[in-house]
Amino acid sequence: VKKDARNTYRFHTSDMERGLREQLMMESSLHHALDNGELMIHYQPKVNFSTGAVAGVEALVRWNHPVLGQVPPASFIPIAEENGCIDAIGMWVLEQACAQARKWQELSLPLLCVSVNLSARQFQQPRLAEQVGQVLRDTGLVPSCLELEITESTVMQDTEAAITALQSLKRLGVVLSVDDFGTGYSSLSCLKRFPIDVLKIDRSFVSDVTHDTNDAAITRAIIALAHGLDLAVVAEGVETLEQALFLQANGCDEMQGYYFSRPVLPDELADMLRADPVA
Ligand code: C2E
Ligand code: CA
Ligand code: CA
Ligand code: CA
User: Fold this and answer.
1) Closest ligand 1 atom, CA of 86?
2) Is residue 12 over pLDDT 90?
């Protein structure tokens, strides 16, 4: 039997073909995903370091594709950005998340705040603040219970435009956070001018924080920078007790990650909160 280059080549082509087919399938069916009820939202708790209580939850969208199964957001959000579906999907996530936060509050669960991710295209949309304001009025959610997460690379794209957009969101009374912090190129002078409230340390630093002295140094520096600018710091992707203890010892305010909980469905979250009297 000849294990030749052709076999390898064949394997690669069929792999690529499958990838391409899936990509095309996603592109054509994403338009109907919302109407077909294929999208759903999971919520991941954020834990406050000093009290141990659940401080809020992040809304993370999922796509249950009839053929492809669970498609992760990292695969379909970029497609949605490209073909414009993100406008409808983003608004849907925002409405659902705000309505869900209200429901939890009505169940007399603690005053949970909900975080929603905004993609670059949504953030650059001139009517964004108006739409967010409308959703807050429609759902009756207190504005300070909504946090909007915008990635560092998005806010740094056009900093003057970003300041204007952030200001109009800030006037609504929502909480603004810079997501995946440390992975983009921040100008520190810009950071000072942004009306933001929170920096979220990217998971890539957190995952090695207890083994890699560089990641530890960067993480400490981000925490010091945030506190110096009067911002809160959230660490994402906390998977171990050691990471949590390191972050706590270094003054991180909130943490989020599989160590505490994976993203879960709304009912599961309510059960978790009921079971945990500190929350
Ligand atoms: P992100 O905003 O940085 O969200 C955090 C991601 O890390 C989530 O992945 C979450 O499930 C995952 N994660 C949380 N804790 C851990 C942990 O301890 N270990 C590891 N390995 N991972 C953890 P997910 O849900 O697959 O989302 C991926 C990205 O997709 C998000 O990254 C966000 O950029 C984007 N995304 C998700 N939902 C939305 C949405 O509604 N709108 C927009 N525009 N983007 C979204
Ligand atoms: Ca996020
Ligand atoms: Ca993040
Ligand atoms: Ca991230």
Assistant:
1) 44
2) no
